[in-house]
Amino acid sequence: YRNRELRKHQFFVYTEWPGGYYGSPSIPGSRAGGVIAAAWGGLKRLGKDGYIRFAEITMSTARALMDGVNDIDGLHVIGKPDATIFSFGAEGLDAFAIGDAMERFGWTLDRQLEPPSLHLVVTPAHVPVVENFLEDLKKSVEEVRANPASSNQGMAAMYGMMAKIPEQAKVDEFILQFLDDLYKA
C-alpha cells in the first residue's frame, strides 16, 4: 500500500461478536485456503461412509461432554447445541478463571464474552479423553470456588477487563492500530 491509512481499509474488525473482539488482516479472516484444501482432502480420504462414521462418533462425544458439563455443580451448557461446538457458563464462578485453571491441566478452551463462557469445538481427537477432561473440569471448578481471587489473574483478568470497556469505538481503533503495526513493512 502507498501508505498506512490505505492499508487500514483492508482490515476487518468486529467488536460485537459474542465470542469477543475479532480483528483480521482481511475479510475472509481465519478461512484460509489451506483449511479448505485440508477439508477437501479429508473428505476424499474418508469417503461418505467414513465421514458419516466420524460425524456420529463426534456428535456422541459432544453429547457426552455436554451432559458431563451440565452435571458439574455451577456449570451449564449455553443453549441447546445441535452440533459439535458448544459453550458453557458458570453460575457464581468466573468462567474465565475456570479456563485458566483448565490450562494448568493442559486444556485450552476459547473464551467467549457475551455471555462470559468457555467454548469447545469437539473433534474425533476428544473421543478418548472425555473422562479426563470432565475430571479436570471438576477440579478446575473446585479450585476457582476455593480461590475467588483467581478472577484477578491470568486471562480471566484480561477478559474481565475487556468486557467492561465502555466505548467500543476505542476498541475498534486499538485493534486497527494493532493490525497496522503487525503488518507494516
TrEMBL record:
One of its GO terms (molecular function) is sphinganine-1-phosphate aldolase activity. It comes from marine sediment metagenome. This is Sphingosine-1-phosphate lyase. Its cofactor is pyridoxal 5'-phosphate. GO terms for biological process: sphingolipid catabolic process. Signal peptide: none annotated. Keywords: Lyase, Pyridoxal phosphate. InterPro entries: GrpII_AminoAcid_Decarb, PyrdxlP-dep_Trfase, PyrdxlP-dep_Trfase_small. The keyword Lyase applies. The keyword Lyase applies. One of its GO terms (cellular component) is endoplasmic reticulum.
